[in-house]
Write a structure and sequence with these properties.
heterodimer; A: alpha/beta
């Protein structure tokens, strides 16, 4: 026969475990808020168009994940999307003049930020801003441009042929 | 001809009488909470017997269910080039359906059958009658703590099941199949809603907890006091609980999707 005291402590542990599971479900799975801040430093970059970039999207250098997007805001004066990135603290030697671009993993995959390192001797620090950015490729815009070009080129070839004949 | 109609009527009345007795039992056990200071340790003991001792089977099966859903889902999603969406797939199916339903089924098999057998044996060996002889109401001393223990344990077990299943999916998806951990969690967080998905799953598990415990306790309390009667009651308690869980799950899902 186990004593009441042992039983009570097991039940306490059980309820504590269930509470822990609820906290995990709330914050980690449904993303209620982000309380658990990982260590690292924060870098911002302003993009014209971020496409489908989301909070917690990956930040990569040369395909290797070095951090994640922590926050996305709209700058009210320039109407650019200001993306806050949290870079892991051991990646502390990214040149300050690097460029950030938003790419897509595969044709339909997630958007992520790719940082291409440049050659400056100064490194990105906490709260520094990446100046040079390239916006996300929006598939609809690309198709629109493509159709426009095809139309134009067919017109010009038709005109040229008309001139020839 | 008339005898068939008569037997149909008799069985109908019998069923109604059973429901009535079960309802009275639930009412008497829940509405009259006699003495919190004396009743609380009994409830704690029952949470230990029904909840803590069920943890092992719940944790092991949830890990494996999460892992197998992730494995199956990954290979299906990879055909469409959407393996990034593994996180939402697992989290939504576990939090909405698998978590509450599988936990309730396991609980019916692990704890519900034990409740029925225990109460049935108490009845068969006339422990319940001897309590009445000592002016101890067996409803308060035996039934009520078991009901409350089940009501509290099953939602807690469901929470643990959900978290462990998603951890199992994380192990397979991220650690083994090599999905990026950031996109696993971020896609999950962007498509799982706390109120719409996780809380609705918990509401389901609260309903299942009430139904499974109620059926198990009633089957034990109403068992024919012989060894064959207890065996029948235990079988019925598992079968009825499982059927009630699966049927109610459909009704509750329809209500939740239809916005009540």
């Amino acid at each position: 026969m186990i004593s009441q005291r042992t039983i009570e402590s097991f039940v306490g542990l059980f309820l504590f475990g269930a509470l822990l599971a609820l906290i995990v479900l709330a914050f980690k799975v449904s993303g209620l808020t982000t309380i658990f801040k990982s260590d690292g430093y924060y870098v911002t970059a302003a993009f014209d168009d971020i496409g489908q970039l989301k909070v917690r999207s990956a930040v990569k250098i040369g395909g290797v994940t070095v951090g994640e997007v922590s926050n996305i805001k709209l700058d009210p004066t320039t109407f650019k999307a200001v993306v806050h990135m949290n870079i892991k603290s051991h990646v502390n030697d990214i040149p300050a003049d690097s460029t950030a671009s938003i790419l897509t993993a595969g044709l339909l995959g997630d958007n992520y930020i790719a940082i291409s390192p440049m050659y400056s001797n100064e490194f990105l620090k906490n709260n520094s801003e990446i100046q040079e950015t390239h916006s996300a490729m929006i598939l609809e815009k690309l198709i629109g441009q493509l159709l426009f070009k095809i139309n134009n080129s067919s017109k010009t070839t038709a005109e040229n042929e008309g001139v020839k004949s | 001809m008339m005898s068939y109609v008569q037997s149909l009527g008799r069985s109908g009345m019998q069923i109604l009488r059973d429901y009535g007795r079960a309802g009275l039992l639930l009412y008497r056990a829940i509405v009259h909470v006699p003495n919190v200071r004396k009743g609380f340790p009994l409830v704690v003991q029952q949470i230990y017997a029904e909840g803590v001792l069920s943890l092992l089977i719940i944790i092991v099966s949830s890990l494996f269910i999460g892992m197998v859903v992730a494995l199956q889902g990954y290979h299906t999603l990879a055909k469409f080039g959407a393996s990034q969406e593994l996180g939402p797939l697992v989290a939504l199916s576990v939090a909405r359906e698998l978590g509450p339903v599988v936990t309730a089924l396991l609980f019916a098999g692990r704890a519900g059958s034990a409740l029925t057998a225990e109460i049935g044996l108490m009845k068969a060996t006339e422990q319940l009658s001897s309590m009445e002889m000592m002016a101890v109401d067996p409803i308060y001393r035996v039934i009520s703590p078991r009901l409350w223990g089940g009501f509290i344990s099953l939602p807690m077990l469901t929470l643990i099941f959900n978290a462990m299943a998603i951890y199992g999916a994380y192990l397979v998806g991220v650690k083994w199949l090599g999905i990026d951990a950031g996109s696993f969690w971020s896609n999950m967080q962007s498509s799982v809603d706390f109120h719409g998905d996780i809380l609705n799953g918990i509401y389901k598990s609260i309903v299942f907890g009430i139904v499974v415990t109620w059926i198990s306790v009633y089957q034990g309390y109403d068992a024919v006091p012989t060894s064959a009667g207890i065996a029948n009651a235990t079988t019925r308690s598992v079968v009825y609980s499982s059927l009630a869980v699966l049927g109610l799950d459909f009704v509750l899902t329809a209500m939740m999707i239809g916005g009540w």
